[in-house]
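Review form for a predicted model. The reviewer records the input and the model, then writes brief findings.
Reviewer: anonymous (R2)
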Amino acid sequence: MNPTEQFNQEKKESIIAIGKDQSLKDLGLKFLVDTAPKKYSYNFSWMGRPIIALPQDMIAMQELIWEVKPDLIIETGVAHGGSIVYYASLLELIGLDGIVLGIDIDIRKHNRDLIEAHPMMKRIRLLEGSSTSNEIVSQVKEIALNKKKIMVCLDSNHTHEHVYNELKLYAPLTTVGSYCVVFDTVVEDMPADWDWGIRTWGVGNNPKTAVFEYLKEDDSFEIDKSIDNKLLISVAPDGYLKKVK
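Model under review:
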């Protein structure tokens, strides 16, 4: 075994061992529970745009985008645009013809203006409207036509019903070997009495419950537990879905 193979094998074994260590997994969740009230995930930006994500998940996304080299990344939920700018910059570095399609029911003008003025806008397309509406879905399918490698990221309304509907509409667009990543599945793992304020989601009604229901109907995806195990701290546990057939 050459040094590179040995390193990769050791890493694989380490990830498996971490996944079996419940105390480490509990520490990861405790970190999320303790830092969420401080809005920890709001502390970071990418190329000037707030990303509202955990650095661990963004590193995981970088690894996946490099591995898959998609020519289309579909993301529902735009917010300040940090994640679509991040994905676009990675596609720019890869150097192929990939684009990021950002969908949001309400792209606020100040955010749109800053996204459209960004250097990475050359690899970004924006669609405003409900991700589950016939009009938006038709536009997405037209853009996806003839794309060879498609990745999907779901990060908009986090209720069970909405995410489940998004999965039915967009997960099938994911190409074999690529990923459909469902963010904020961690809602299911938060304390049952967690105060979500005006949010309508919570334990029993969230992206993870939607993932579990969807996977009962579609066996072309598998949860990539190796990503959960190596991250430990993630807003998307059980949300990294690899399309295997």
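Findings: The chain has nine helices and nine strands.
Further findings: The first strand starts at residue 45 and ends at 46.
Recommendation: see findings above.
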